[in-house]
């Protein structure tokens, strides 16, 4: 029987010192080589890209392989679900989800490292590629690739929103979204809407029926905006289902705007006077004539918000249910409600300014005063209207009438309360 390497390099205790030193060096070298050999056998450069790809090296007998699962999978799967990746027998080390245009779907790994869920839902008519890397409990690496496509939307819901981006608006301007189709999944839609402000303004969403009959959701502050506030709307609706008869949203919406000076038009219909107040100081008092008392021509009261400065427009009484009372071109027209109440020039009523309400519901003033006032105000400025004989308070959906609800009542209109 052959002797072991150790036996072969033994030297007699009485051998010279230089011989014994050479023997010890041989023993150390042999022991080092023996230790390095198994390490070299277990090393691997790893692998990536292929589904369920295997590591080149032979795994430890106690190291069970990690299994990575991706959902959803397949072709034309329903949209509106997050992408989920799970690891059984190990932990995830990275996950990347990319659509056909190269956009990545962000997500978060669970605290235990065994699952990952995308922050956004899959959108209709998209193709996704998922690449996941994982590590078994024994340390063996593995990479997985998967792909799936989502079905096209059979119906699309679109949004008309105000105010427009990069605009400057008054202190009463709400953020308002009007939907083309019904929104049954209001809570799910509201979760995708985010308002950020430069000064942490408190506010709430509220669901309304717009004057047009369509579904609408507005965000208003608890009180009027602080001048100079910068506001951003992020409506991350892409991939959200409106619900029955509503269809899918297939895009996101974003708008940023700024709040102007604190400016309020106070309209006293009993005194037939409009007062423009800016930053707490009276700028000008203007004699006006409001809606004729005792019938359908009365004005609305409460807070109406200047919706738009429309300039010179044709006003026809038949469009607001007043028969053939008038049909004329009107200058300096400022819309206050969808139902047709304006502030505008009304030279034909000059004899009534300051002493009597004789209009068809609008707030009329002289050409000169209307021209000046038109140049001072901007959309979003509130008109605080008082008077005994009116048609009632401006409804929330008739223009921007949300200010006529108490803060508590407005909050109740949120789908998340």
Please tell me about this protein's structure.
With 417 residues, this protein is mainly beta. The protein has 3 domains: 67-150, Sandwich (Immunoglobulin-like), CATH 2.60.40.3780; 159-258, Immunoglobulin-like; 263-407, L,D-transpeptidase catalytic domain-like (Beta Barrel), CATH 2.40.440.10. 12% of the residues lie in helices and 37% in strands. It has helices spanning 5-8, 17-42, 186-191, 367-376, 407-411; strands at residues 67-71, 74-77, 82-88, 90-99, 107-109, 115-121, 127-136, 141-150, 159-162, 167-169, 175-179, 193-197, 203-209, 215-221, 230-235, 253-259, 263-268, 273-278, 281-287, 302-305, 308-316, 327-335, 342-345, 363-365, 382-386. Strands 19-18-17-25-20 form a 5-stranded mixed sheet, with no helix packed on it. A 4-stranded antiparallel sheet has the order 1-3-6-5, with no helix packed on it. Strands 2-8-7-4 form a 4-stranded mixed sheet, with no helix packed on it. β18 (273-278) and β19 form a beta hairpin. It is elongated.
The major sheet is characterized as: 5 strands, mixed
**What is the number of beta strands?**
25
CATH class of the largest domain: Mainly Beta
What percent of residues adopt helix (DSSP H or I)?
Answer: 10-25%
Strand order in the sheet with the most strands = 19-18-17-25-20
Second rung of CATH, namely the architecture of the largest domain: Beta Barrel
Percent range for β-strand residues: 35-45%
Q: Please give the radius of gyration in angstroms.
A: 37 Å
Shape label: elongated
Global mean pLDDT: 87
Total number of distinct structural domains: 3
CATH topology of the largest domain: L,D-transpeptidase catalytic domain-like
Structural class: mainly beta
Q: Please identify which CATH superfamily of the largest domain we are dealing with.
A: L,D-transpeptidase catalytic domain-like
**Uncertain spans, ≥5 residues at pLDDT below 50?**
1-59
Gap from first CA to last CA: 87 Å
Number of helices: 5
Topology pattern, helix = H, strand = E: HHEEEEEEEEEEEHEEEEEEEEEEEEEHEH
């Amino acid at each position: 029987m052959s002797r072991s390497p150790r036996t072969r390099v033994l030297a007699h205790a009485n051998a010279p010192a230089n011989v014994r030193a050479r023997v010890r060096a041989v023993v150390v070298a042999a022991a080092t080589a023996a230790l390095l050999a198994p390490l070299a056998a277990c090393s691997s450069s790893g692998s990536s890209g292929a589904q369920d790809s295997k590591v080149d090296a032979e795994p430890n007998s106690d190291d069970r392989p990690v299994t990575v699962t991706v959902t959803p999978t397949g072709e034309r799967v329903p949209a509106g679900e997050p992408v989920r990746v799970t690891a059984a027998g190990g932990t995830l080390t990275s996950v990347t989800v990319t659509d056909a245009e190269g956009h990545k779907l962000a997500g978060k790994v669970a605290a235990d490292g065994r699952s990952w869920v995308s922050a956004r839902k899959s959108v209709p008519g998209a193709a996704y590629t998922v690449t996941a890397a994982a590590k078994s409990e024994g340390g063996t690496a593995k990479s997985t690739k998967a792909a799936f496509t989502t079905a096209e939307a059979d119906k699309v819901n679109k949004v008309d929103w105000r105010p427009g981006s990069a605009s400057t608006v008054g202190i009463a301007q709400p953020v308002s979204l009007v939907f083309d189709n019904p929104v049954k999944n209001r809570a799910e839609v509201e979760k995708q809407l985010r308002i950020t402000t430069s000064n942490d303004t408190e506010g709430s969403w509220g669901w309304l029926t717009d004057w047009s009959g369509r579904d609408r959701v507005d965000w208003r502050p608890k009180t009027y905006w602080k001048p100079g506030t910068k506001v951003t709307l992020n409506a991350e609706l892409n991939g959200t289902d409106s619900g029955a008869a509503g269809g899918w949203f297939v895009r996101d919406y974003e708008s940023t705007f700024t709040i102007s000076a604190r400016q309020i038009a106070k309209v006293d219909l009993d005194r037939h006077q409009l007062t423009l107040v800016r930053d707490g100081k009276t700028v000008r008092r203007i004699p006006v004539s409001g809606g004729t008392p005792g019938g359908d021509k009365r004005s609305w009261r409460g807070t109406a918000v200047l919706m738009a400065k429309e300039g010179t427009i044709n006003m026809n009484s038949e469009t607001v249910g007043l028969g053939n009372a008038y049909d004329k071109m009107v200058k300096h027209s400022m819309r206050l409600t969808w139902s047709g109440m304006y502030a505008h020039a009304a030279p034909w009523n000059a004899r009534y300014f300051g002493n009597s309400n004789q209009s068809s519901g609008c707030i009329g003033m002289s050409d000169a005063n209307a021209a000046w006032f038109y140049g001072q105000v901007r959309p979003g400025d509130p008109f605080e209207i008082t008077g005994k004989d009116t048609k009632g308070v401006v409804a929330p959906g008739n223009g921007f009438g949300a200010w006529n609800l108490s803060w508590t009542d407005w909050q109740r209109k949120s789908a998340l309360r």
